[in-house]
Design goal:
heterodimer, A: mainly beta, seven-stranded mixed sheet, four-stranded antiparallel sheet, 0% helix, globular, B: mainly beta, five-stranded antiparallel sheet, 11 strands
């Protein structure tokens, strides 16, 4: 079965550093997402991306965050200047159609980001 | 009041038992309701989805939605040790999913 792949599986960084989390969505999917999950807390929506632009974003997705689809296969999340509270598991997901109504989101296994 | 509430558990039951997992919500605009299963160190995986009120069955899994009570349930029949995971409810009114905190389920052999 096709799957969403994420790299790296773990990322450790110093506070204030920039990090880039990488994802390869399923090839025929059109919608891409980033979610995060702080340990023991809820899954939180960050951003959705369609047709090379952001379609929705949450309050969490502030100016420190950006997303990009640099080529036909990769989808990246950049955190410009990491804070301690950015430590979380970051999940990439993709779907054929827009999330919310009957659309099955396929999630990657996540990148565990630890900010020291 | 949180938008979606879900007991974090853990819920521990013996193999073969019927499991009932539940979420309550406050936003009456929610129309789409989903259950995801998340194994340790993995991303969530969609199990069931329903639209509005009613029941939906898929193998050993049954999802129920009661919009009048703002209450949704996932039942697992003949539970197996492989069902041990965290179960997350998610729901939406527009195109943003709102998630419960997840219930950790442990099926004891």
């Amino acid at each position: 079965e096709p799957e969403v792949t994420q790299t790296p599986s773990h990322q450790v960084t110093q506070m204030g550093q920039e990090v880039i989390l990488r994802c390869v969505p399923i090839s025929n999917h059109l919608y891409f997402y980033w979610y995060r999950q702080i340990l023991g807390q809820k899954v939180e929506f960050l951003v959705s991306f369609y047709n090379n632009e952001i379609s929705e974003k949450s309050e969490i997705f502030d100016d420190q965050f950006s997303v990009e689809r640099p080529d036909g296969s990769n989808f990246t999340l950049k955190i410009r200047s990491t804070k301690l509270e950015d430590s979380a598991m970051y999940f990439c997901a993709s779907s054929e159609g827009r999330q919310g109504a009957y659309e099955k989101l396929f999630f990657g296994s996540g990148t565990q980001l630890s900010v020291l | 009041q949180k938008e979606v509430e879900q007991d974090p558990g853990p819920l521990s039951v013996p193999e073969g038992a019927i499991v009932s997992l539940n979420c309550t919500y406050s936003n009456s605009a929610f129309q789409y309701f989903m259950w995801y299963r998340q194994y340790s160190r993995k991303g969530p995986e969609l199990l069931m989805y329903t639209y509005s009120s009613g029941n939906k069955e898929d193998g050993r899994f049954t999802a129920q939605v009661d919009k009048s009570s703002k209450y949704i349930s996932l039942f697992i029949r003949d539970s197996q040790p492989s069902d041990s995971a965290t179960y997350l409810c998610a729901m939406s009114a527009n195109y943003q999913l709102i998630w419960g905190a997840g219930t950790k389920l442990i099926i004891k052999p």
